[in-house]
Amino acid sequence: MSLRRATGLELHRTGFGIFALHEVRSERGVLVTLGRREHKRAAEVVEAGGAAALHEEAGRTLWWTSDGLYWDDEGLDAEAVALLAWDRRRRQDARIERLRKVRAADEAVEVARRQRIPDDVRIFVWQRDDGRCVRCGSEDDLQFDHVIPVARGGGNAPENVQVLCGPCNRQKSDHIA
Ligand SMILES: [Zn+2]
């Protein structure tokens, strides 16, 4: 790809009002200085989704796009630069969205793993609670419940596990939420 992100360069504003200047700076100093009107024209192009050429040196052009500053060394025109920058942003957004989903799935698996109550604890709690809901005594629709939810730091020790019926468990969840 002939369009490369111009790393280490930033747009800065100096001065105020009609004396304002905009500069493209690198660590080594000022690379380009834009007058107020020049900056305004370029900003309008970028605002409209286009690309504005700010500077040329040694066969390459510095472009300003809505996705930041880029160097081009193949003599691309403004439309091509804007499209390539847009495509790069679009792909990056899609990639971030994919990663977000992967991480969410990963976290869901981890929560499920932490919520899984070991068999020996289940047997112990079942016997301790006499095989019935500790709130209403029902023997139907029974579930193991974390007294303090795993998401809030509760663990799988017997003291934090109890037998509840479905209705009591839902009532408890509503109460917590
Ligand atoms: Zn109950």
- In round numbers, the mean pLDDT is 92
Strand content: 25-35%
Distance between termini? Answer: 51 Å
As a percent range, the share of helical residues equals 40-55%
Shape: rod-shaped
Largest sheet: 4 strands, antiparallel
Number of helices: 4
Report Rg: 31 Å
* Structure classification: alpha+beta
**What are the segments in which pLDDT stays under 50 over at least 5 consecutive residues?**
none
Q: Which small-molecule species are bound to the chains here?
A: zinc ion
Count every beta strand, where a strand is a DSSP E run of 2 or more residues: 9
One letter per element, helices H and strands E, the order comes to: EEEEHEEEHHEEH
- Going across the major beta sheet, what is the strand order? 1-7-6-5
Structural domains: how many: 2
Model description:
The protein is an alpha+beta fold. The protein folds into 2 domains: 3-88, no CATH class; 117-176, DNA Binding (I), subunit A (Orthogonal Bundle), CATH 1.10.30.50. Helix content is 40%, strand content 27%. It has helices spanning 36-47, 78-115, 119-128, 166-176, and strands at residues 3-5, 10-14, 21-26, 29-34, 52-57, 60-65, 68-72, 142-146, 161-165. A 4-stranded antiparallel sheet has the order 1-7-6-5. The two termini are 51 Å apart.
